[in-house]
Each structure stands twice: as structure tokens, then as C-alpha cells.
Write a structure and sequence with these properties.
Structural class: mainly alpha
Order of helices and strands: HHHHHHHHHHHHEEHHH
Distance between the termini: 43 Å
Largest sheet: 2 strands, antiparallel
Number of helices: 15
Helix content: 55-70%
CATH class: Mainly Alpha
Radius of gyration: 21 Å
CATH superfamily: M75 peptidase, HXXE motif
Strand content: under 5%
Amino acid sequence: MKVHDSRVFLGFSVAVFSVVSFWFLRGEVNADIVADQEHKVLEPKSFEQAKLMAIKTYGRIIEASYTGSLLRAIELRKQVKTLVAEPTQDHHDSAKKSWVQARLPYLQTEALYSHAGNAVAINSWPINPGYIDYVEGHPESGIICNPEQFPDLSPESLEKLNGRDGITTGYHVIEFLLWGEASGLASRGKRTHIDYAAGRTKNAERRGAFLVSCCDHLIRQLAEQLAEWKVGVADNARERYEKLPVNEAIKNIFTGIGQFVEAHPEARNPGEVNKGRNLPASFSGLSHIDLVHNAAGIAHVVTGAYVGVDGKVKVRGVGLIGLAEQVSPVRSERLRHYMNASMRSVQSMNASLSREILQGGDAPAIQHSRIFTNALGYLLKEVDKLAVDLEYESAVDPEP
């Protein structure tokens, strides 16, 4: 009996996850460790069995993605609490590094069709930084600088304030509080650890309380999201998804990718990647890693596998390539081909990022981001063609 070959995806994963080894993230992914964890999956005996296996695999990938997101958020809160308790440069750098590591697995969920609706509280953008804290030209603006008007900075209070005049919860609020406002020609915010030093900076204690509460709120939201996709929980999103008619469940896989493409013009237009402050993660200057890890999320769906940010294989099953093998060997080979092209382009983009970020650059070289987004665009086109092959409506139109 045949088994699915996971080498293509594992190679892609090494390329994707090594992309965070620049700037203050200096770790390297060990490709041998990843390769040693190669999972082999039996090939389905029929198209109908392949679809059933793909549905189960999809649920497992979503659960693994939110598990990784939650665990990294818990570590982020730990590092943030250390910064607030003892504001030093090292602790500030560790908190910022932890934010990057916490954000990566969540980015990989953005192309997944989710029935749990916490995304607004978790990842809203833009956030209106002046609603939260001081900004250039307004040293007393924001909730933090106005204790009389906003005495309560608990997670519950932040949730109530969310959306009134700006956003008060989620990854980008935490990012702003760690990096500060990116203004003028600066590639990222210039906030220092002194902003959290009581006695040296006004409202330092309130700033720390806001930051910790925001991390607490993020953890609660991710825990709720994960609960919706835990296996064996009655009437949660996972159970409802797996009880859908088979063809509707498969269509939702394509719909999730289609919704992602619709919401992310940078997936279709290389120039958008370089418009730093028009994209999320502009406070940290890391907008360009968003799409790379979004692409990793798409890769999970295409290959039916999930590799965590620790480089370990968490899920291996049947993905879109496995479905394509049942109806169009040509399509499955083209999906593999463009997966390889995406892998190579990520490696090139990573090299560009490492050089330019360390040299104080603002964004990756346009040629590298163009190569990457073009490769991703071709992969998305093949996904769209597979949807048509399977007689679903075209849901993934990568054209602007």
C-alpha cells in the first residue's frame, strides 16, 4: 500500500520557520530533527475515503494551530510579567522576542475556515494607538495616561472599552505597548524599557498593568478558540464541522483560503508587502513575516500536515494534494511543484530579511518579496483549479 511523501512539506516548514532567525531572534531550525519526525500516512483507497480523511485532518490541523497559539501566548505573558516586574533591556528584548514567537502560530490560522468568532478580539487592525497610550505630539493621550477617566485596567474593562474609539485587545495592542509608535521614517517603534520603570516614567505602572491585562485577555480568547476545535467536545465547532455533509465540509476548506485571499491584498500584490505602516505588525517593523506564516497556514491545508514553531510534526494526514491525487495526478504534481517554488522563495526572502533587518533596513528587497508573492499566487491558482476539478465553485481567485 502506498504512503504519502511528506518531504516536500517538511522542507517547506524548515524554510518557513527559519525565517524568524533574524534581528533579535538568532535561533536556527535543525532540519535533521524535523526530517527525523517524518510521518507516513496510508493512501486512501477511494475518493470518498480521501474526502473523509481530509475532513478529519483539517480539524486536527486547526486544533494543533490553536494549541500552539495558546502555548506561545502563555509564554508571552510570562515574559511580559518579568518585564513589568523588572524593567531591563534584556527583559524588554525577551518580551518582544516572545511576542514574535507567539504571533507566528496564530498567523497560520488565518487561512482556516473557523466557526469560532474570536478573531476581532484577537487580531484587529488598525488599532488607533492614541486611544491606548501617548503618541507623538500627544504625550497625555490614551487610556493609560488618564487614570481618572479609566481607573480599571482589568481584562474585563479592556474588553468593554474595545471598539469604542479604537482597539484595546489583541496581538497588535501588545505589539504597540512593547515597541511603541512607528513615526516618521522609523522602521519600527522606539519604545524602551524605561517606559515600564516606575519612578522614571509617568504612568509606568498603569502601562504595565494594561500590558499584562491584554496578555491575559489574549490567553482567554485563544483558550475559547481552542475549545471550539478540541476533539470530542459536544456541539463545538469541530463536531459541527465534522457532521456537515462531506462535500460541504470540503468546500469550507476552499472557502477559508478564499476568504483569506480576499482579505489580504498582499497575497496578490508584491508591492503591498513593502508598504510597512499600511500592514499589520508595523510597530515592530515585521509586517513582512505575516504573509510568510500565512503561507505556512495554506501549506498545512495543501499538504495535510502541521509542523509547529518548535519544528516538530504535530499532524500528518490527507490534504488538498491527497484529494488531487484521486482526481487529477497532473493537478497534484502542479501543487507539489508550486509548494517547492514557495519553499525556495521563502529561503531567498529569509536571506534578504536577515541582511536588511540587521542593517537597519525598513522592508525586504522588492525583488525577494515579489518572487515570494508570485510563487504564492501560482500556488493559490492551483488550489482554485483544484476546487473547479472537484466541482466546487471557484473560491480562491488570486487575481487582484
